[in-house]
Design goal:
Four Helix Bundle (Hemerythrin (Met), subunit A); mainly alpha
């Protein structure tokens, strides 16, 4: 896939997947109404958003630039993406989506988003475990196996992997 096509595809998928899951659904659920919440909780939510959004955008950029593909299963990358946040954790995109939802819950004082974040997290873990990991093992073989041994799936390493 050419890099321009990969970039357009990644941008469209960004709007359709995390844009809906971490943007439209929380807005639809809460209308982004702000409830009273202690400032440390609101600050924690803002921090989560400020960390999650750049990680999410960066992951999409890496898929297009480094992987020459998209995160969408119908237009996968040609190369395994192991740069950027992927040097610390195998699933930064999913962690960033859940982080953005939890961040909104805390920042807005909207606890109803927390069960939604939990459901999203469970669905993502199941998708990774039963679809994504087996697919990546078939496509990238020993390279992916080595990556899995070195980089945790859900809890980031303290130091980047330089495999």
């Amino acid at each position: 896939m050419r890099s321009r096509t990969a970039a357009v595809g990644s941008a469209l998928f960004f709007l359709l997947a995390p844009g809906v899951v971490a943007g439209v659904v929380p807005w639809w659920t809460t209308r982004w109404g702000v409830h009273r919440v202690p400032w440390p909780i609101r600050g924690a939510g803002l921090f989560l958003l400020l960390v999650s959004v750049p990680v999410l955008i960066g992951a999409f950029v890496r898929f297009a630039r480094d992987g020459l593909g998209t995160p969408a299963p119908i237009a996968p990358t040609e190369r395994l993406v192991v740069t950027g946040a992927y040097r610390y954790v195998r699933n930064p995109m999913y962690l960033a989506v859940v982080g953005a939802i939890v961040g909104q819950a805390l920042m807005l004082g909207q606890p109803r988003l927390l069960p939604y974040a939990a459901v999203v997290a469970v669905l993502m873990v199941c998708f990774v475990r039963f679809h994504e990991e087996p697919t990546l093992r078939r496509r990238f073989g020993a390279t992916y196996e080595a990556y899995c041994r070195a980089v945790p799936g859900w809890w980031p390493r303290l130091h980047p992997w330089n495999g």
